[in-house]
Specification:
alpha/beta, Heat Shock Protein 90, five-stranded mixed sheet, two-stranded parallel ribbon, 11 helices, 7 strands, elongated, disordered N terminus, disordered C terminus, two-component regulatory system, membrane
């Protein structure tokens, strides 16, 4: 009796441990798929870079300041075409035995696009590169008497290297890498068809193109970095000037807070004391004065809140009274101690100077004297403060510097914002400021501010005729 063969069940595998095939096959397949996908993306990116030129912009060296430098790429391209075209035609027809008409067509295709490379180098490459390949194929069917180099002729190598320079100065690195790979791949592919008796120079061209593309791309990257740095410096300078202006305005607002607070305090005191100073006031007037005092106190509280915002940097407020024209003499004396001979002419009949104008006039003199010490050490300086037809005129003129440098004493140092602060203060009071070098080399600061309401800066001129010698040190004070 025949017995049926027994089918033993397969040996069970340990759970969680894959078979040898799954352990070797699945990761390898996934790795190959990943490498293939990345390679496909790379080649797709290179093909896109080769077919998408950079946006046509200005020609090479178009940002040069000299007109002759801007014309240099055109002159160089025209010289290359004029020299390489007849040389290529003569070489193809004489040494390689190519038909004259065909040699002329190939030579024109290989050299004429060099003029296009000044503006659109990638488009020129798409003409010259196929023309070089076509020329190499034509040389296969020719057997000239003195032919010895293949697949590239010497004139085509010179023109192709010039094209690489234009590409490196304009196109992206991915495009340059694609051009370099295409050049090498075409040269080594042509090596398989090299006829006997010809010397191959594709390796030389491959190395030359790589070196030229690397150097020119580095030069372009350096130029781009310098241009971006100049733009950033310009932006930073504009931001710095704007920040300085805002800081100066905030500082002026903090100083004027004391002036305004004094007037508001006087209003509050007068309104509160009116019923006691004038007993016969009617009840309605008493209520009105009470309301005025309450409004003044509320305004003072709001001003303190505003001042806390302006002092958001945590700085403490100044406890000393704000200076005025009565302290200009001290500024001049401190300037003299700093080594600057200074003279002050302060009119005795200035009249009633508003506190804001008084403070602004002091700060203007302070900044002007500080600029003299910084930029024109040792220069003779004259300060004049007088009232002319309802206007306070402040004039500071200094002579040429006589010392290479000088230290600034604390009493004569300014706020550090110079002309910016002067302009803001004068504008705040409704006046005008005139600064600038004088014909004899000096520098002048002339400010006029109204001594009362209703003054129009356009209707009054400032008298600046004084016997002064003034300096300039080659740059405008801060």
């Amino acid at each position: 009796m025949a017995t049926e063969p027994r089918h033993e069940p397969p040996s069970p595998r340990r759970p969680g441990k894959p078979s040898r095939i799954s352990r070797l096959g699945t990761p390898t397949r996934a790795t190959l798929q990943g490498l293939g996908a990345r390679a496909g993306e790379t080649f797709q990116g290179l093909a896109s870079a080769l077919t998408t030129p950079s946006a046509p912009g200005a020609p090479l060296l178009s940002d040069a300041s000299s007109r002759w430098v801007r014309l240099l790429p055109y002159v160089f391209g025209l010289a290359l075409v004029a020299s390489l075209l007849p040389t290529t035609v003569h070489l193809l027809s004489g040494d390689y035995g190519v038909n004259g008409a065909l040699a002329g067509a190939i030579g024109t295709a290989q050299t004429a696009p060099l003029l296009l490379a000044v503006v659109r180098p990638l488009q020129a490459w798409w003409i010259i590169f196929p023309a070089n390949l076509l020329g190499a194929l034509v040389l296969l069917t020719s057997d000239g008497p003195r032919a010895h180099l293949w697949p590239w002729t010497p004139p085509s190598v010179v023109g192709y290297c010039a094209l690489m320079i234009a590409l490196g100065l304009r196109e992206s690195r991915r495009t340059l890498f694609g051009v370099w790979l295409a050049t090498g791949a075409a040269g080594y592919a042509m090596e398989a068809f090299r006829p006997d008796g010809y010397s191959s120079i594709h390796t030389l061209l491959f190395v030359l193109t790589g070196v030229l593309l690397l150097l020119t791309s580095a030069v372009r990257a350096r130029g781009d970095a310098q241009r971006l740095l100049r733009e950033q410096e310009t932006i930073s300078e504009a931001e710095r000037a704007h920040r300085t202006l805002l800081e100066e305005r905030a500082r002026i607002a903090r100083e004027l807070h004391d002036v305004v607070a004094h007037h508001m305090s006087m209003i509050t005191v007068q309104a509160d004391s009116a019923p006691y100073r004038i007993p016969e006031l009617p009840e309605a007037a008493r209520e009105e004065f009470t309301s005025i005092a309450a409004s003044a106190r509320e305004s003072l509280a709001e001003m303190r809140r505003l001042l806390s915002v302006l002092r958001s940097d945590g700085s403490e407020g100044e406890r000393a009274p704000q200076p005025g024209l009565d302290r200009v003499q001290q500024l001049v004396e401190a300037t003299v101690r700093a080594g600057v001979p200074a003279e002050l002419r302060l009119a005795a009949d200035l009249g009633d100077v508003p506190q804001a104008v008084d403070l602004s006039a002091y700060r203007i003199v302070q900044e002007a004297l500080a600029n003299v010490v910084r930029h024109a050490p040792g220069a003779s300086t004259r300060v004049s403060v007088r009232a002319v037809e309802g206007w306070l005129t402040v004039l500071v003129v200094n002579g040429p510097a006589t010392e290479p440098g000088s230290s600034v004493e604390r009493g004569a140092s300014g706020t550090g914002h110079g002309l910016v602060g002067m302009r803001e203060r004068v504008r705040l009071t409704g006046g005008s400021l005139d600064t600038g070098p004088l014909p004899d080399g000096g520098f002048r600061v002339a400010a006029r501010m109204p001594l009362g309401p209703g003054q129009d800066p356009a209707t009054t001129t400032v008298t600046t005729a004084t016997s002064t010698k003034i300096p300039t040190t080659g740059k405008e004070p801060e």
